[in-house]
Amino acid sequence: MSEDTGFDIIDKRFARYVLGNAPIEKLADGIRWIEGLVWMGDWNTLLFQDLPRDRTLMWSETGGLSVWRFPSGQANGQARDRQGRVVFCSNRERALCRVEHDGSVRVLADRFEGRRLNSPNDVVVKSDGTIWFTDPVYGISNDYEGTRQASETAPGIYRLDPRSGELTLLSDRFDGPNGIAFSPDERRLYVAETGDQTKGDPVQVLRVFDVGADGRSLSSVRDFAKVSPGYTDGMAIDEDGNVWSSAGDGVHCLSPEGELLGRIRLPGTVSNLCFGGSPHLNRLFIGVSHSLYAVFLNRRGARWP
Prior knowledge:
By secondary structure, this protein is mainly beta. Helices cover 1% and strands 47% of the residues. The chain has one helix at 12-15; strands at 6-9, 25-28, 34-40, 45-50, 55-60, 64-69, 75-80, 86-90, 95-99, 105-109, 111-112, 115-116, 123-125, 131-135, 156-161, 166-171, 177-182, 188-193, 205-211, 218-225, 235-237, 243-247, 250-254, 260-265, 270-276, 283-288, 291-296.
């Protein structure tokens, strides 16, 4: 695997995001497959998954790499709720779960209309406290990142109100809904379609929905961008509404109009990423296959209302 790293400026707007004296740093390696990066600002710590090893890891500038939870339930995507708790997707439990303040784990949702969910993959918490997540079949398709089992329902995108327990199916028009993120004003919802992996040519495109005025519904789904090489798996949103997408050759920065502004070249396939670093959220943490990378940017991650 090449160790080529650097920036490719496609559009002049991208040049102002790059800090000439801020290197692209490798922070850790030896991970089987990285997923679910989330920044814990009050801990000054990054949490992420070593999914095949069934571990949630933590990294900090002062403490380096350590294990936060084992077993993790083969946790995948994760986010923080408005009370500071970690909400995570569990491949093993086929469920959306939450780590309470005392360290106990609570299942928030594992069935829809009496049928088991497939394997919740990625999750985002809206400013009203509702939890939006994707549910493809990837975690039940093999025994490496989950447990091979039969699907009971079509892949979908869901909204959970944790106060009432109401689970709403928002869309089942995806073969493999994956990464999920809101625009800074929460008027758009981005969802990565990574397709049916059993097909020779799966549909792989980043799509965007309009969020209804009620803040609960979706409409006007459309293709936003197609990343190449590779595809959008995870993504992070900055303060300007740019989408920083995973790709086969690193990270691609897309404008709110879907234009490719630039790339961060990295030596492997990027799975997921997030903004972090206290107090400014100006450090992009990146899961590159089996290694954790980071780079400081002249841009901050989005802070939601």
